[in-house]
Amino acid sequence: MHPHALTIINHPALVSFWDFQEEAGADRVAKGPHPYRLKEMAGRIERIQGGPFGPYAAQVAFGQWWNLPRAQCPELDFHGSEAELTMIVWVKREGRENSGCQAVAGIWNETESKRQYCMFLDLRIWESADQVCGHVSSVGGPTPGYKYCMTTAIGSTPVPKEEWVALAFTYDGLYAKVYVNGRLDKRGSYNPYPYDAGLYDGGPEGADFTVAAVHRAGEMGNFYAGAIGGLAVFREALSGEEIAALSASGSVNGIDG
Question: In which domain of life is the source organism classified (predicted)?
């Protein structure tokens, strides 16, 4: 096992950690307390050389994603007024022109109004473009008075392409926050973003956990394209110091702990 991965796996609040070392065509199986299996959708997701947690990473083509059925990942179902979470993702965005916002990972179904939480890039609301965003919803559907869900933490720094970046998203019941390479990416009232309403409870028929896409407008969309080298989810909102230390656990292109 890659030595940097042990820092994450040994954290007491870890739910699941994927390092994406598996071959194309195989389920990506989490390390840590809950070995949940991400299933490839829309074809084989290729494996490339060079990742933050080993010799490989996954290369997601536009239109591909992973699915983890809700019934198979109960510990990722963060909901209610006491819900907390942290997600850290190591990505290398493809150097393509953005065609819309990109979902990174979460439990978020817009079609059926079953939104809970999800990390996005380039969400394109509140004058955002290319930043990391931590979307949260207590209602499942659009924010009252708006066409879309508008409740989200949004950073200030454009997330670069064609280089590895560690992105983090936390929710502690009072604020949603987003981080870039271990640093709180402050942006006025949007990061930290005050939100004390908790997270929607989708129940047994709620949304699945998806990576690199979400269900919206009746089909999968908001596709992410590029490499993913690590995804860690924790059941607590970790401190800024912990985020910085864990984000540095990767070991490529300047992310070196």
Answer: Bacteria
Phi then psi dihedrals of residue 163, to 5 deg:
-150, 150
User: Any idea what the Cα angle at residue 240 is, between residues 157 and 1, rounded to 5°?
Assistant: 95
Q: What 3-state class would DSSP assign to 105?
A: strand
Whether this prediction's pTM lies above 0.85 is answered by: yes
> How far apart, in whole angstroms, are the C-alpha atoms of residue 215 and residue 140?
13
pLDDT tens per residue across span 198-220: 999 999 999 999 999 999 999 99
**CATH architecture of the domain covering 28-256:** Sandwich (2.60)
Question: Which amino acid, 69?
Answer: P
Query: What pLDDT digit, counting tens, does each position of 151-193 carry?
Result: 999 999 999 999 999 999 999 999 999 999 999 999 999 999 9
| Residue extents of the structural domains in the chain | 28-256
With beta carbons less than 8 A apart as the criterion, state whether 51 and 57 touch. Answer: yes
Give dist(CA 236, CA 34) in Å, integer. 15
